[in-house]
From TrEMBL:
Transmembrane segments: none annotated. It comes from Nocardiopsis alba (strain ATCC BAA-2165 / BE74). The keyword Transferase applies. GO terms for molecular function: protein N-terminal-serine acetyltransferase activity; protein-N-terminal-alanine acetyltransferase activity. Residues 2-154 form the N-acetyltransferase domain. It comes from the Bacteria. SUPFAM superfamilies: Acyl-CoA N-acyltransferases (Nat) (SSF55729). Pfam families: Acetyltransf_3 (PF13302). One of its GO terms (cellular component) is cytoplasm. Keywords: Transferase. InterPro entries: Acyl_CoA_acyltransferase, GNAT_dom, Ribosomal_N-acetyltransferase. This is Acetyltransferase family protein.
Length: 177
């Protein structure tokens, strides 16, 4: 139902809609606010692959952008990657983040040769917790005051999936911290 593809310039309007959402703009460092900035953001995805940062649009069967998922290789020696994602605000609650995280993890294992994919989320973000759990990333613990947004620090829950882990893990309440 969902798949990953490279971003293209035709996605600029959809990208701007997503970044108009305060929650997303609050978390990102590179925030496109104009059509030209959106094109630059999209063009930069191709450059980032040379730095081993692989970002994809998560799309549906009609090729509509529903979100973004990214795998950053953090250590070739240890075969580690970092997973991040966001979902367009109009598409939340449809399993986009789960599908994107699952597909990106598979890409990390099959195409990049990674052994472990890690991710994290603010403790107060249960949707991300559920999406990561359903994508097979097991909760591993709490990282205190890890994130700084504005002048506030936030604890995060850390998750990881190993290449040897099952594709899907769906216990009740994966983040009971």
């Amino acid at each position: 139902m969902y798949r990953l593809r490279e971003w293209n310039r035709g996605d600029a309007d959809r990208l701007l809609e997503a970044f108009a959402w305060r929650e997303l703009a609050w978390q990102e460092t590179e925030i496109p606010r104009t059509p030209d900035e959106a094109m630059e953001w999209i063009d930069r995805r191709a450059v980032l692959t040379k730095e081993e940062i692989h970002g994809f649009a998560v799309v549906d069967g009609l090729d509509k952008v529903l979100g973004h998922v990214q795998i950053s290789v953090t250590s070739r020696r240890h075969e580690l990657g970092w997973l991040s994602f966001w979902t367009h605000p109009a598409e939340q609650g449809r399993g986009v983040a789960t599908a994107g995280a699952r597909l990106a993890s598979r890409f990390a294992f099959d195409e990049l040769g990674l052994f472990r994919v890690e991710a994290g989320h603010r403790i107060g973000n249960p949707g991300s917790c559920v999406a990561l759990g359903r994508a097979g990333l097991l909760p591993e613990g709490i990282e205190r005051a890890k994130l700084l947004y504005g002048t506030s620090r936030y604890d995060t829950a850390s998750h990881a999936r190993l290449v040897t882990d099952p594709e899907e893990w769906t216990p009740e309440g994966p983040c009971k911290y």
